[in-house]
Amino acid sequence: GGKNIQAKLVLLGDMGAGKTSLVLRFVKGQFHEYQESTIGAAFFTQVLSLNEATVKFDIWDTAGQERYHSLAPMYYRGAAAAVVVYDITSMDSFQKAKKWIHELQRQGNPKLIMFLVANKADLGQKRAVDNEVGEQYANENGLSFMETSAKTAQNVNELFYEIAKRVAKS
Ligand code: GTP
Predict the structure, then answer these.
(1) What is the pLDDT of residues 74-130, one digit of tens each?
(2) How many angstroms separate the CA atoms of 27 and 166, rounded?
(3) Cα separation of the two ends of the chain
(4) Exposure on the CB side of residue 160, measured as CA atoms within 13 A
(5) Per residue in 15-40, pLDDT tens?
(6) How many whole angstroms from 18 Cα to the centroid of ligand 1?
């Protein structure tokens, strides 16, 4: 019920962090062990109904490979929300996430709703980034933090519902 809101959402993060997998889990309920690397960017839509509003997400799933970095501003410009994803088994991917957060803080919409997402929570035995480290970094930089698994679906719907609620309030 209530308002109809259209919101642009962008996913950023290192190649292989699981951006496409999170979106496919959310939009189609699917997971692919051999998900292909995104070229340029991919576009998806999904509607979430809250009590107070209906949020239609226009989702830009960007490519994490470095050669596509310069395209990113096209996708985060005008975005209501950004999801910066890292892979808990890769410290490099966490460092890359920090770089994205810096870039968004410098160049993004000042009202951008930002989430730092620690993905691949199902791979706990191979963990390279402690949860506390990710959570503390998010807190210090004014982001929300969530640990997810696109594989098991842990916290994936919760993530997008949280974002929808924040968008509806803003
Ligand atoms: P780029 O398109 O290159 O930027 O990568 P991406 O961030 O979109 O990652 P993608 O979704 O393509 O996932 C990369 C690999 O990680 C794939 O083989 C996925 O199956 C795997 N993967 C993604 N999420 C998870 C997860 O939560 N758990 C596990 N175990 N594997 C995952």
Answers:
(1) 999 999 999 999 999 999 999 999 999 999 999 988 999 999 999 999 999 999 999
(2) 19
(3) 17
(4) 28
(5) 999 999 999 999 999 999 999 999 99
(6) 3
Q: Is 134 in the pocket of ligand 1 (CB under 6 A)?
A: no
- What is the C-alpha separation between 158 and 164, in angstroms, rounded? 10
Q: Ligand 1, residue 64: give the atom nearest the CA.
A: 4
Instruction: Return the structure tokens found at 165.
Output: 């609620």
Question: Which of 79, 133, 131 lies closest to 110, judged by CA?
Answer: 79
Q: What is the pTM of this model?
A: 0.98
26 C-alpha to ligand 1 centroid (Å)? 14
Nearest to 170 by CA among 48, 22, 52, 72: 52
CA of 147 to the centre of ligand 1 (A): 14
Residue nearest to atom 17 of ligand 1 (CA): 35
Pocket test for ligand 1, best of 21, 23, 122 (most atoms within 8 A of CB): 21
- Say what the alpha-carbon torsion angle 43, 57, 82, 70 is, to the nearest 10 degrees: 30
Which residue's alpha carbon is at the smallest distance from atom 24 of ligand 1?
A: 18
